[in-house]
């Protein structure tokens, strides 16, 4: 079999794998593509999770889209058509809407799993071909709070402070709101190695998750109280004289204001707010402060709140007080979720951003990027709406009337999903590019069949900030085009100025020029160098620059070179429990599935492992409700209701229930979630809302495509 080295299509660990194609003349029963792990990629070191092992099955799913689909009218069915028919209609309707209502009548929505080349081209297409400010992406639902907090503390947002392998050398790791044992299992080997060498793992999670079960210490706070816990831990650091005052004086500003702010977070008060016992808090502080090298990490559990930016800031304050950021082998980091969640937020598909992580309202940034694109800087639009605000405005009086969507499934993944469905239905035109008929694609007016991960080349930037090569292993099916080809063809049909290459190498060469001089500078990186070096860390401003695996060792990229302490205070969730909705709901992922499940629900082994929606509840809560394990349960919030199968477990608090968000239909957890937004990051509050549970009169639904 012929082997192509590449990377997994799922999470931001971007595990290395080799795809082997069946040789000509192989028996018909042989799989067309086989997956083998690579041991030359530090992130996974020869390991793969169940999703990675079965990823080649995505290439042959039975309902793969291989021809464009189009509706003759809103109530007509989707029917096959030619590419010219589909693109002519899209371009024609876009022209008409822009002419009648202005450029912001058209919106673009991207995804955190798109390659750097596609994310870059999508942002360019929105600003140049359409002239619209209305572009954002589903990464706003994943990384935005950590990005905002990292930016204001360090002057830069980059997931981990160094290579993931640094964690194995750490003496202690505090992980707040991450369940890596299920979301990125090969990541656990670094934490296991750390523990085998005498290090300690502290996990903060309202559930006793698979990761928490492997921890040396599990702190189990009430959902929505992580910020109070972080402030309480910092209070103990200061009260017990464990802070690194020499580091604070030499490398930070703002400490006095934070010290004053955490004075009121004495241990007994924090225990009353969070439910975490004082001795456990003291033990967590002792483990972190006693380690020669230590890390504080956050995941979505700490970030997906209406105060997520402040919550991450509180954990950054803790790390700064201990002197961790900017020291080799230590620091604060966030665990990027989607496959290109890091690179996807660097090159222009965010509402407020231009390539290279530049701000779109910065005149110098506009001048630089416009010169690369060959347009007048004044022709570029300003900032647009963030993801949820954009989706909420669709079809409204002042909102976009058309949406082009690439690499996302918001009907399942967005908060308050029923309201999102209503807004999509109000559009004049919905265009979706996908390789399967996702729940969002099923509602489109035009569906464009897209190539998937093993059928196209490009680059991905993993959670370390390491730029990697994704290599094409086989040609897409007849009738399927890459997203780059679709965007280039539409740009030409719209008479867009400038060049519109659809070759990934040409696009990356342009991206390098556009990013040059920006915070995320890729100008010194090329495909050949990535292959020779096994990936290159940004920023890398020139071909002879070594790349930057640890960006804060000498100084922080702030005006004075110092990291910033920022005082923050606990506010609690936007929606508290009451007599009508007396239980907290928190959401997350499970081992077998990924994001909205549009991919993994189509892989038989994964669908069999977790066939449908479920809700975890404590036996005490189940007893009060008269619910037994396996019963159908209706979970209801102020926004909607879902059906799920009850799973009784003591892993979840008695005042809290947990639901994964991977399923569609009546089991959609995001029919329940609260769209309240963080004022800084515009992150919705996925991780906590108030619900009530009722025994259901009919069986819980099974998973459907």
Structure description:
With 705 residues, this protein is an alpha/beta fold. It is 29% helix and 18% strand. Strands 5-4-18-17-16-6-7 form a 7-stranded mixed β-sheet, covered by helices on one side. Strands 24-26-25-30-23-27 form a 6-stranded mixed β-sheet. A 5-stranded parallel β-sheet has the order 10-9-8-12-13, with helices on both faces. The longest helix has 19 residues, at 83-101. The chain is globular, with a radius of gyration of 24 Å.
Net shape: globular
Total helical elements: 22
Point out poorly predicted stretches.
Answer: none
Cα-atom Rg, whole angstroms? 24 Å
Average pLDDT across residues?
95
Query: Which band does the percent of strand residues land in?
Result: 15-25%
What is the rounded distance between the termini?
A: 32 Å
Helical content (DSSP H or I, runs of 4+): 25-40%
The computed structural class is alpha/beta
> Mind summarizing the main beta sheet?
7 strands, mixed
Number of β-strand runs: 30
Record the strand order, biggest sheet.
5-4-18-17-16-6-7
